[in-house]
């Protein structure tokens, strides 16, 4: 079942620079779609367009069949909760002035509804936060700490925890492992894979790190200068018929 569809999206900044050129793809429920490309190819702009933080010039972005790109801020609000994001820097998701428990409660207090929760259940703040931390393999005692009292890996786990707390339809992962050391990266990728399976999550995983993206994704897109130049199931990454640029990326690993 298709959960999100991006069709012929273009984006030009006011500087006149076209950053996205005719980008199309769809995301199946419960799958991870990887988007690989080098720095500056437009990956983060694409993420911001999907999150409706940037307005696109043309094309369509739909979530569960609902077009998002022309909705007013008011009409968009109910859909915002269905797409959550995790960025490279966990401080983009965790308010430094809030204890972890308050950051984790925030999405539920803003948008949450007990009826929307299929895997977590809300009976009290205490019990809900405990379940959330358990899901991302963090000790319950971290709830009372501030972000700066956590390691980088723990902070990113808390950011992921916040993103999945209201069970969104799509989780956008924009370089989620890039700020971490190699061991923390590996354990975070393992956690993301466990969460996808456990909660039937649908991911768009954007990164310049081919190995990380390939380890999690069922399908890969290769982006260059704002365009998708190659698209294929992950098991076909090493085939001879791949685009020469994809082969170049592969040869770097
Ligand atoms: N607000 C903006 N105004 C003008 N140009 C922008 C703006 N945001 C991004 N760009 C330009 O668009 C291009 C794509 O940027 P983007 O951040 O989407 O790339 P990226 O692939 O995510 O790169 P990185 O991996 O380094 O973050 C870059 O050349 C960037 O300078």
Automatic annotation (TrEMBL):
PROSITE patterns: ABC_TRANSPORTER_1, ABC_TRANSPORTER_2. This is Dipeptide/oligopeptide/nickel ABC transporter ATP-binding protein. CDD domains: ABC_NikE_OppD_transporters. Residues 1-250 form the ABC transporter domain. The lineage of its organism: Bacteria, Bacillati, Bacillota, Bacilli, Bacillales. InterPro entries: AAA+_ATPase, ABC_transp_ATP-bind, ABC_transporter-like_ATP-bd, ABC_transporter-like_CS, P-loop_NTPase. Keywords: ATP-binding, Nucleotide-binding, Transport. The keyword Secreted does not apply. PANTHER family: ABC TRANSPORTER, ATP-BINDING PROTEIN (PTHR43776:SF8), TRANSPORT ATP-BINDING PROTEIN (PTHR43776). One of its GO terms (molecular function) is ATP binding.
């Amino acid at each position: 079942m298709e959960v999100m569809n991006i069709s012929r999206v273009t984006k030009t900044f006011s500087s006149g620079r076209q950053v996205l050129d005719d980008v199309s793809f769809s995301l199946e429920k419960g799958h991870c779609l990887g988007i690989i490309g080098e720095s500056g190819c437009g990956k983060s702009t694409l993420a911001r367009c999907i999150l409706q933080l940037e307005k696109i010039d043309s094309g369509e972005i739909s979530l569960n069949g609902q077009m998002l790109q022309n909705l007013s801020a008011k009409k968009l609000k109910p859909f915002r909760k269905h797409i959550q994001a995790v960025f490279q820097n966990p401080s983009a998701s965790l308010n430094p002035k809030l204890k972890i428990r308050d950051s984790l409660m925030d999405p539920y207090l803003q948008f949450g509804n007990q009826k929307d929760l299929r895997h977590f259940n809300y009976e009290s703040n205490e019990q809900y936060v405990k379940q959330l931390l358990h899901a991302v393999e963090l000790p319950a005692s971290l709830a009372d700490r501030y972000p700066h009292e956590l390691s980088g890996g723990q902070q990113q786990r808390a950011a992921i925890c916040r993103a999945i707390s209201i069970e969104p339809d799509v989780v956008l992962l924009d370089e989620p492992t890039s700020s971490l050391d190699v061991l923390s990266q590996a354990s975070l990728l393992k956690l993301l894979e466990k969460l996808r399976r456990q909660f039937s999550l649908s991911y768009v995983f954007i990164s310049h790190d081919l190995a990380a993206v390939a380890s999690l994704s069922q399908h890969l897109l290769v982006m260059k200068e704002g365009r998708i130049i190659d698209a294929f199931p992950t098991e076909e990454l090493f085939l001879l018929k791949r685009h020469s640029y994809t082969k170049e990326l592969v040869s770097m690993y």
